[in-house]
Amino acid sequence: MWVPALLLLIIPVLLPPASTTDPDQPCPSEMNKVKDLLEVNCTGQTLSAVPPDLPADTGILLLSINRLTSLSTAAFLPLPQLQDLDLSHNGLVALRTGPLLPSLKELILSHNALEALPILQGLPVLTRLAVAHNSLEMLHAGAFQNVSQLKDLDLRGNQLRTLPQEAFAGLRALEDLDLSDNLLEELPKELLQDLQKLVTLWLSGNRLRTLPNEFFPEGHLFMYVFLTENPWHYVLNWSVIVWGCHSYFAFYAPTASV
Ligand SMILES: *[C@@H]1O[C@H](CO)[C@@H](O)[C@H](O)[C@H]1NC(C)=O
Ligand SMILES: *[C@@H]1O[C@H](CO)[C@@H](O)[C@H](O)[C@H]1NC(C)=O
Ligand SMILES: *[C@@H]1O[C@H](CO)[C@@H](O)[C@H](O)[C@H]1NC(C)=O
Fold first, then answer.
1. Which fold has domain 38-113?
2. Using CA atoms, how far apart are residues 63 and 68, in angstroms rounded to an integer?
3. pTM of the model
4. What are the pLDDT tens digits along the chain (258 aa)?
5. What spacing in Å lies between the alpha carbon of 240 and ligand 3's midpoint?
6. Which ligand lies nearest to the CA atom of residue 86 in the structure?
7. Nearest ligand to the C-alpha of residue 239?
């Protein structure tokens, strides 16, 4: 009688330890101690869909370097605590938003193939959006009107030629706007109208020859405006700009030609 009992005691010892790499769950997870969030790392798994059964308390989800070419934010509805989502380097061509992601603060879409952005919906606490190095040719008027908490918007390295005057309408919390390395030839005078908190504006590496008068709203506090690598047609009237902003500027002076 005691022999089978002993075997029962031994067998569990002989079994391999509980696996941390569940074959149905290819993504390792660990606590991110800095952010105090559960971080799930699905980087470089050749995934063509968001894996089901991710931990419900996922706070940071890394999905960089996969094959998520078309995606709806509905895929993240089972993750109500999701704050940071990295979808860079996926060849993403289509994105749909709408379903409520109540906690999402940071969305990284850089290094994809997006030609357009939808009018972003259902992301009420989004504070950082990066869509750098995609193929955006235009922005919709009011594209960001429903992500009014946005503080940091990175559109560097796209194909933007013009912008509608309401491109950034409603972005009253925006502090950092990066439009560098696009194909911008001119900008609408009212572009910065709602951006009362803007601190840093990157316009370097475009095709700007001039800026409209009163482009920088009067009474606005800017800290940094980067303007290098544009074919400026004439020296801008800096005094007007500086006077208009009642502030300190760190201009990277354009290579002026008359
Ligand atoms: C995520 O996983 C990839 C591939 O295993 C690894 O290279 C990367 O360092 C990980 N990232 C983090 C933040 O742990
Ligand atoms: C988007 O914003 C508009 C105006 O700011 C508002 O009327 C509308 O209800 C919002 N839509 C969603 C889905 O939040
Ligand atoms: C630049 O702006 C100042 C202040 O408004 C104005 O007095 C001056 O005439 C302008 N200079 C040129 C070259 O337009």
1. 3.80.10
2. 9
3. 0.81
4. 444 444 444 444 333 333 344 555 679 999 999 999 999 999 999 999 999 989 999 999 999 999 999 999 999 999 999 999 999 999 999 999 999 999 999 999 999 999 999 999 999 999 999 999 999 999 999 999 999 999 999 999 999 999 999 999 999 999 999 999 999 999 999 999 999 999 999 999 999 888 887 788 777 766 688 878 888 765 555 544 443 343 334 343 444 443
5. 6
6. 1
7. 3
What residues contact residue 178 under an 8 Å CB cut-off, 6+ apart?
132, 153, 154, 155, 156, 202
Q: Domain locations in the chain?
A: 38-113, 145-258
- On whether the 145-258 domain is CATH 3.80.10.10, my answer is yes
Query: Would you say the CATH fold of 145-258 matches that of 38-113?
Result: yes
**Pairing state between β 176-178 and 200-202:** parallel
User: Measured in angstroms, how far is the CA atom of residue 218 from the centroid of ligand 3?
Assistant: 15
The first and second tokens of residue 86, run together, are 């990295």
